[in-house]
């Protein structure tokens, strides 16, 4: 039986819609494979096609999104979503950040300090979900609850320049 990790890309994009400058709509573009390395913690990284999911009638808070699957052979162990905020978004605003975090996962997110960063941990059906913010981006890492190295994977992802 093939296990899958489902990331709420459409939910995050829905949560991110409706902001921005009314005079200059922002086009959401997919991030390419160059945004992340080909391998993270021994897992093969594959770029997922998100172009269909990026259409919106309103102005998004993000200007670019990338979705990546992390695999051990053919087995999907995790997904990584990288979303870059539009220039006119106050990405440092804690209320704004919390509104994004609140819409990810099915449990209330708990904030933890990891290294010098705040990471929000939540869960979804048979998944552990970590959300953190880096400069003008927010990153969502979702791992199967059976994946034994989710914290190590999170540390590796946090060290990347996303």
Mean pLDDT across the residues is 81
Radius of gyration: 15 Å
The percent range for strand residues is 35-45%
Structural domain count:
1
Which residue ranges are poorly predicted, with pLDDT under 50 across at least 5 consecutive positions?
1-26
Q: Briefly, what CATH class?
A: Alpha Beta
Ends distance: 33 Å
CATH topology tier name:
Protein Transport Mog1p, Chain A
The structural class is alpha+beta
Described by the principal axes of the CA atoms, the overall outline is globular
The major beta sheet can be summarized as:
9 strands, mixed
Total helical elements: 3
Number of strands: 9
Do you know the CATH architecture? 3-Layer(aba) Sandwich
Helix percentage range: 10-25%
Order of helices and strands: HEEEEEHEEEEH
Outline the structure in words.
With 162 residues, this protein is α+β, with helices and mostly antiparallel strands. The chain has three helices and nine strands; from the N terminus they run αβββββαββββα. It has a single domain (9-159), classed as 3-Layer(aba) Sandwich (Protein Transport Mog1p, Chain A), CATH 3.40.1000. The protein has helices spanning 9-16, 94-101, 150-159; strands at 29-30, 39-40, 43-48, 62-72, 75-85, 110-114, 117-124, 127-134, 137-144. Strands 1, 2, 3, 4, 5, 6, 7, 8 and 9 form a nine-stranded mixed sheet that branches. A hairpin with a 2-residue loop joins strand 8 (127-134) and strand 9 (137-144). The chain is globular and about 40 Å long. The model is unreliable at 1-26 (pLDDT under 50).
